[in-house]
Amino acid sequence: MRALIATLVVGVFAPILDTTMLTIAVHTLVLDLRADIATIQWVSTSYLLALVVSIPLCGWLDARLGGRRLWVAALVVFAVGSALCAASWSPVSLIVFRTLQGAAAGVLMTNMQTIAVRAAGGGSVARVTAALGVPIALGPLIGPVVGGALLHWADWRWMFAINVPLCLLAVVAALRVLPDDAPTSAVPPLDRTGLALLAPGIVLTFYGLAELAERGTSGVLLLFVASGAALIAAFGVHAARVGDRALVRVRLVRIPTVAASTLASLAVGGALMGTMFLLPLYWQTVRGDGALATALLLAPQAVGAFVPRFFVGGLVDRFGPRPVAVSAIALMAAATVPFAFVTAGTSPVVLALVLFARGLGLGAVLVPILSSAYTGLSRDQFPHASMFTRGAQQLGGAIGVAAVAVVLHAGLAHGPAEAALHPAFWVMAAVTVLGVVPALRLPGRADRTG
């Protein structure tokens, strides 16, 4: 089992490293590709849109190809996309190739959990989930440092080229270690109607939320979000009607553990991404630090997120998912509140301690939530549970970023950045606390069945 976990960790490390490295390369891309910031932002936006659109396809792809074949195919596509990104000759070419990367990354991040839970069998799903979180915890710590070094000693193209050998190593390991779980039964046809509703619904929703975060409130953008939400709702009606033949089996949300895990993932995704949007702004706009310095100052949170990986699985096995999730959310909320009072003169040591504490909560919170989603499900339902929780995290993150950005834009219109950040952090603290509601519906120790 350790070899399998290590193989999966190596496979997802490339997309996580890639995403975290790119956050500090925007200015370099603007200069080297002779483009404006609005155009370069599409390098990240196209990646995100492709990632979230690919998530609902994972269930059907898993049924058609099997877990290992899908994993290897996604790694190959990500490697090819990375090589093409490194060879990009214009902003448009880079955006197109990043779309290819994003689609592969969405499959990798979703399929990782499905493969591991299937392999765990009767073992501890919580311990497996904790081990899989290692690259996610280390990414924000290692990525900006590696990206800064590559920008200093080489150029931005190496930030993509470095993914190729990582992916090739992951492919070799997968072929040697992952079980060959080729499908043995008839594969249902692709739900084309569902895809025609869900794909544009996701694109409109996520694009509208991303642009709201960038530009502030706009009638057109709100229309995009509303139209996307309507299409997603229409897909829900369609999926409920066709049952297991749907692209995503929405009937699974009738299962209390799946519903609670999905809603908790939504809230935690919003708390995570919304706060991560705000924290760099504090250091860069209020304190005047550069991008690399900001990444280093945020390192205590990444270190804190890494620490619980060694023991949170055992805590979930001993006490059940509910108390662990509620405690982690409470710690995250408590460690977010101090940033509603920070000023330019707040001690960096105090902030480092607060970030470390918040990281402890972040590192522990997803393990009980994600492991609960598979309680009592059959093997063929695992990919759909993975899609629910992964998709909810992404949607929550987009909503969280858009919400705090709108609050921030409103504050900046009437005062300095320092004052504008305070209500935005209060919003994030409130969103974090909301996660307690679905977390209280997770299984306790006595009522766990798997």
The helix content is: over 70%
The global form is: globular
Proportion of strand residues:
under 5%
Low-confidence runs of at least 5 consecutive residues: none
The CATH topology annotation of the largest domain reads as: Growth Hormone, Chain: A
Question: What is the makeup of the main sheet?
Answer: none
Structural class: mainly alpha
- Please write the CATH class name of the largest domain: Mainly Alpha
* Secondary-structure element series: HHHHHHHHHHHHHHHHHHHHH
Q: What is the overall pLDDT average?
A: 86
Number of helices: 21
Which CATH architecture of the largest domain is right?
Answer: Up-down Bundle
Distance between the termini: 18 Å
General description of the model:
The chain is an all-alpha fold. The chain has 21 helices and no strands. It is globular and about 60 Å long.
Supply database-style keywords:
mainly alpha, Growth Hormone, Chain: A
Brief summary:
The protein is mostly helical. 77% of the residues lie in helices and 0% in strands. The protein has helices spanning 2-22, 26-32, 37-54, 58-65, 67-86, 91-120, 125-132, 134-153, 158-161, 163-177, 192-215, 219-242, 256-286, 291-297, 299-306, 312-319, 321-336, 348-372, 382-412, 417-434, 436-439.
Question: Helices, strands, pairings?
Answer:
Elements: H1 2-22, H2 26-32, H3 37-54, H4 58-65, H5 67-86, H6 91-120, H7 125-132, H8 134-153, H9 158-161, H10 163-177, H11 192-215, H12 219-242, H13 256-286, H14 291-297, H15 299-306, H16 312-319, H17 321-336, H18 348-372, H19 382-412, H20 417-434, H21 436-439
Helix pairs in contact: 1-6, 1-8, 1-10, 3-6, 3-11, 4-5, 5-6, 5-10, 6-7, 6-19, 7-16, 7-18, 8-15, 11-12, 11-19, 13-18, 13-19, 13-20, 15-18, 16-17, 17-18, 17-20, 19-20
